[in-house]
Design a protein that fits this description.
The complex is a heterodimer of chains A (about 250) and B (about 250).
Chain A: E1 2-11, E2 14-24, E3 29-33, H1 40-48, E4 55-60, E5 63-64, H2 70-79, E6 80-83, H3 95-106, H4 111-124, H5 140-152, E7 158-162, H6 170-187, E8 190-194, H7 198-204, E9 207-212, E10 215-220, H8 222-227, H9 231-237, H10 241-251
Parallel strand pairs in A: 3-8, 3-9, 6-7, 7-8
Antiparallel strand pairs in A: 1-2, 1-4, 4-5, 9-10
Helix pairs in contact in A: 3-4, 3-5, 4-5, 5-6, 6-7
Chain B: H1 2-20, H2 27-42, H3 46-68, H4 77-117, H5 120-127, H6 131-168, H7 174-182, H8 187-213, H9 219-249
Helix pairs in contact in B: 2-6, 3-4, 3-6, 4-6, 4-7, 4-8, 4-9, 6-8, 8-9
Classes of the chains: A alpha/beta (about 250), B mainly alpha (about 250).
Chain lengths: ~250, ~250
């Protein structure tokens, strides 16, 4: 579980996060949605420690992040997996080396032991024969799958994903969504996904947080999203004719 | 305004350097990266350094011969002596370091800059890796270990180029040239050149890394930081050259 209390973050005079309170649940896919510029990427970066909030608290489990000592923070880093928007694979490394990287940095496993784990996670993301390929030789969807494999290789407790579907065709996007949901249940982890892809919301949104202009505007499940009368949600999610019809059909 | 910008960059560079030596990564990982950097920064520069050194050595010896003209009071062996001194004292350590600042510096700044804009650096940070130390420390070690080898090679090839040009064009004989090389040789000049090289190597590895790290945005910013990195590394080399010469020779 990850809990957030009154997170504020500004860049100069621009206050991006204006006191967000929320909770992300274990074993569920928690989605952060919102328009471009609403602050969701900054929020995610605060959660993973890439930005330091100006005020507020983040709890991992029941412990405040600000109270972590060096050893606990190091352990937390090992418990966090992250999938970046552009995959962020290391160009100079093969798929195998990319996935093995966290193991080689933070464990004392032998090469053979690491290789067993690498093959296990690559197989889990359906990339059995790509060990020796370089990221530039892979399609966007395959790169995302390698990024997911790298994120879960250390058996994390928390999985963060920043726009995991961006740049992917609808079919591949669904494959990635389903994979993330399956992994969440299988590993029983807290998955937090930053997205503005409404298909993802409808497919895997166990818990959805809608951020607008730095505030948490709405929170609920995908089913609640169909029935809510929140005007901001109606404006953002049901701005397209397709989703209006989906909502109508669902409510009928 | 320029002064303010320079001071700001100096402060940023100092803070950046404290991160480089803060938390060492696993030695096994460091060693692997070190050998990769030796290949990327050092071995890949052997060709260009050889080419520059040989031909500049040749040109320097021909210019010396031209300047001496037919003066009967200056022995022909002085062509080699002057070529040797120019190459050991200045050309090999300083000019080749400026060439390396261009070649290696732009490579370092653009590769780190690209890693920055493609979130590869963020990925390291999220995992808990000290990305600055992980990326920069092996570069510093590789440059400081391998660049002196390149400079010694440059000295040898420059002097060889001078011999080929002067003997080949008939301005002096081979024995004149060899006699000149052996005359008034001060081994300290080589040590002086290598001391300078160590400082230059440090600058070449760290200044472009700093500029690479400052990149935010896209391809344009990567290109811009690469250019700035080469310019400031070259300026630093010239300034260090003056300071070190003042300290070591005067």
């Amino acid at each position: 579980m990850v809990k957030v209390e009154k997170i504020h973050k500004s860049f100069g005079n621009n206050e991006v996060l204006k006191g967000i309170d929320t909770e992300f649940h274990k074993g569920k896919t928690n989605l952060i949605i919102g328009q471009s510029g609403s602050g969701k990427t900054v929020f995610l970066k605060c959660l993973v420690g890439l930005h330091t909030p100006d005020s507020g608290e983040i709890f991992f489990g029941d412990k405040k992040y600000s109270n972590f000592n060096i050893k606990e923070e190091r352990q937390l880093r090992m418990d966090i997996g992250m999938v970046f928007q552009g995959s962020a694979l290391y160009d100079s490394m093969t798929v195998e080396e990319n996935v093995m990287f966290p193991l080689s940095m933070f464990t004392e496993q032998t090469k053979e032991e690491m290789l067993v784990r690498v093959n296990e996670v690559l197989s889990r993301v359906n990339l059995d024969n790509a060990n020796d390929k370089f990221p530039s030789e892979l399609s966007g969807g395959m790169q995302k799958r390698v990024a997911i494999a790298r994120a879960i290789v250390m058996k994390p407790k928390y999985l963060f994903c920043d726009e995991p579907n961006s740049g992917l065709d609808p079919n591949t996007a669904i494959v990635i969504d389903n994979l993330l949901q399956e992994i969440t249940v299988e590993y029983d982890i807290t998955t937090i996904i930053n997205t503005h892809d409404m298909n993802s919301v409808m497919e895997i949104g166990d818990n959805i947080i809608f951020i607008k202009e730095g505030f948490k505007e709405w929170e609920g499940s995908k089913d609640e999203m169909f029935t809510t009368d929140n005007p901001a949600i109606l404006e953002f999610v049901y701005s397209s004719e397709l989703f209006k019809k989906v909502r109508e059909t669902y409510n009928n | 305004m320029l002064i303010f910008r320079i001071l700001k960059n100096l402060g940023g560079y100092s803070l950046f350097m404290t991160q480089v030596f803060r938390k060492p990564e696993k030695f096994r990982v460091f060693l692997k990266l070190f050998f990769r950097e030796v290949d990327d920064l050092g071995m890949s520069s052997v060709g260009i350094v050889s080419f520059f050194s040989f031909f500049i050595g040749a040109v320097v010896s021909l210019q010396m011969a031209y300047n001496m003209g037919d003066n009967p009071f200056i022995p022909l062996s002085y062509i080699a002596l002057a070529t040797r001194e120019s190459i050991i004292l200045e050309f090999a350590p300083t000019m080749i370091s400026i060439v390396l600042a261009g070649k290696v510096g732009s490579y370092i700044a653009s590769s780190i800059g690209t890693m920055k804009v493609t979130e590869q650096v963020d990925a390291l940070e999220v995992m808990g890796v000290n990305s600055i130390s992980y990326l920069v420390a092996p570069k510093i070690a590789a440059a400081m270990m391998f660049f002196p080898i390149l400079i010694v090679m440059s000295m040898f090839l420059g002097i060889l180029g001078g011999w080929v040009a002067s003997v080949g064009s008939g301005v002096c004989t081979s024995s004149d040239y060899i006699l000149g090389l052996q005359s008034y040789f001060k081994p300290f000049y080589v040590i002086y050149a290598l001391i300078k090289t160590e400082f230059f190597a440090f600058a070449i590895a760290t200044i472009p890394s700093f500029y690479g790290y400052k990149v935010s945005g896209g391809a344009l910013e990567v290109g811009r930081s690469s250019t700035l990195a080469v310019v400031w590394t070259s300026i630093t080399i010239i300034l260090l050259n003056y300071i070190l010469t003042q300290l070591l020779l005067v």
